[in-house]
Specification:
This protein is mostly helical. It has 13 helices and no strands. It folds into 2 domains: 163 residues, no CATH class; 163 residues. The longest helix is centred in the N-terminal third of the chain and has 57 residues.
Length: 352
Amino acid sequence: MTLSRFAAVQWLTVAVVIAALLYLLGPILTPFVAAAVLAYICNPLAQRLRGWKLSRTLATLLVMGGLLLLAVLLLLIILPLLEKQFGLFVQRVPDWIESVRVHWLPYLQQWLGAGVEWDSQTAKRLLLDSWQGADGVAGRLLPWLGSGGGAIVGVLANLLLIPLAMFYFLRDWETMLARLDEMIPRRWQGKVRAIAGDVDRVLAEFLRGQISVMLLMSAFYVVALWLVGLEFALPIGLVAGMLVFVPYLGMILGLLLATLAAAMQFTAFGSLLLVWMMFGLGQFLEGFVVTPRLVGDRIGLHPLAVIFALLAFGQLFGFFGLLLALPLAAIALVALRHLRQSYLASAMYKQP
């Protein structure tokens, strides 16, 4: 075996071992991956703070403190809004129960072909007893908490682990990159650095494009549901728009919430149909216009390539494939560009 083939076998073995470890350790890697992604996003800001002659540790603490302050401000803005909307929901519940009896019960009787008894006072009393009876709710939840306590503790531990891991990732980001750079064979160093730089630029464009999509779709859903006349247009529109970074999750959750609110608010089926049409239009715009334009164009992917990437990675890797489809496609695009350049510069291509 020649030296070059032996080196190739070595690298292939290392790649297989790393892939196997990632597969086996997948369940515990989630908080570390999330922390690494957050550190990657915040690293440019930490580098700017370093330009003010601050230590890396102090810059990291300032960045994480800013993130915490931003999260608190968002909660201070959103929680009063949700409280107001929930108060309106509680006030409207008796009217909705009566609306079910007057408007929807005849349809149910006609569909079943039999009489259906409905006691509005009993339904209201049961609902109020359920809200006010904290002991009863706790009694029902305790067995579930006992059986699922381990899973809950695991989720909480992961949530607490994310900021801790993010601190070390962000503080030691430059050191970790330098150590990785030392591991690269010297003859490949220039090419690997060039590819890594292209991948970094593409991922930065992807993140900016994805944020633009989230903001634009949030505005669309809020305005669209407000035009329909839905009382809960603002919170439902924000939920549907901000969750578009997970394909289909924002649309499905927003559609369920909007359908429930519309069924309780409107008596005419046409109004409910309008809500469905707005979500259908939003999904069409997000999938075929907004994401291809704002994300695909930024990372250099054709709109058809964006759609194909979502379908292909979703088919291969399921939900997480959908979540990582575009950034992985962008990285693959960078690799293909460099392969194309190497091919065009090769003797095989240039030889007559």
